[in-house]
Design a protein that fits this description.
The chain is an alpha+beta fold. The protein has two domains: about 160 residues, no CATH class; about 90 residues, no CATH class. It is about 40% helix and about 10% strand. It contains nine helices and six strands; from the N terminus they run H-H-H-H-H-H-H-E-E-E-E-E-E-H-H. Strands 3-2-1-6-5-4 form a six-stranded mixed β-sheet, covered by helices on one side. The model has no long low-confidence stretch (mean pLDDT about 95). The structure holds zinc ion (2 copies). One zinc ion binds next to loops.
Length: about 270
């Protein structure tokens, strides 16, 4: 509802809203079919992982049903292509990959393990084979989301907020894509892959851990609803929903689209998303 209203109030965002609605529809349908996984992890292992800054969802914990995954993978690529977020060549390459189970399954496993960092020594630059389409990351992030979201749900009690003060996701290791400022002024980060939330320093940069306030530029929209934190060390920025001035909680699918003009403003100032 909120998304549809956003599209009506801001016709310039209509296409982004329509794409978001289509992606959410696919994810909701699949996520409803994914069982809540029963993940058994040793308490000492969980604590040691977190102290070392390593997330807790291992590839084997993900309740992946490959035919559901292939369906999500293909439908995600189709939606991105329909809304011109993928070009024709990449779309074709990704569909071909999705049809070939012998290539897709090891690729997803390698990609997750290289980007999650659950095991020490994994290198994110080895995540996809050389020559893979540039948008493969984006398709994989979206296609794996319904499965990973269920893992984060199952493990929500296993993360100790006193130990986990890192800028990456305690469940899947991905970067935050959004943040939310709570009425208590605490800042929570939202994972760009599994959408889990975790508490983080109110001002420090989650990408490079820079905590020098004079090197973090922060600016808000005129209505005070949204804010950008931009780091003058690594030049990355993060958008946030300011719950101190609002009556509803953060809705990442809506707020990420409503703040597209803020991305333009941050990039104009030389920051990167
Ligand atoms: Zn995550
Ligand atoms: Zn930084």
């Amino acid at each position: 509802m909120e998304l549809k209203e956003l599209g009506i109030a801001h016709p310039e965002l209509e296409s982004a809203v329509a794409m978001q609605l289509a992606l959410m529809d696919v994810q909701r349908r699949i996520q409803g079919r994914v069982p809540l996984p029963w993940i058994q992890s040793d308490a000492d292992w969980l604590a040691a992982q977190q102290r070392a800054g390593r997330p807790i969802v291992r590839f084997g914990d993900i309740p992946l049903n490959w035919s559901d995954f292939r369906l999500t993978f293909r439908q995600t690529a189709d939606i991105l292509y329909r809304y011109e977020a993928l070009d024709r060549t990449e779309h074709q390459e990704i569909l071909t990959l999705g049809r070939d189970g012998h290539r897709l399954e090891p690729l997803v496993s390698q990609w997750y393990q290289a980007t999650a960092g659950v095991e020490p020594g994994m290198n994110p630059s080895d995540r996809t084979p050389a020559g893979s389409p540039a948008s493969l990351d984006q398709v994989l992030v979206l296609a794996l989301r319904p499965f990973l979201a269920r893992c984060a749900e199952a493990l929500v009690q296993s993360v100790d907020p006193k130990i986990w003060r890192y800028g990456h996701c305690p469940f899947c290791g991905w970067e935050p894509e959004f943040a939310c400022i709570m009425p208590s002024a605490e800042r929570r980060l939202v994972c760009g892959r599994c959408l889990a939330q975790w508490a983080f320093d109110a001002l420090a940069c989650p990408f490079c851990a820079n905590a020098d306030r004079s090197l973090v530029t922060s600016f808000a929209t005129r209505d005070g609803r949204y804010r950008v934190y931009a780091c003058d060390v690594c030049r990355r920025y993060l958008k946030a929903y300011d719950g101190r001035h609002s009556t509803r909680p953060v809705l990442v699918s809506v707020d990420a689209i409503a703040t597209l003009p803020l991305d333009a403003a941050a990039m104009q100032r030389g920051y990167v998303g």
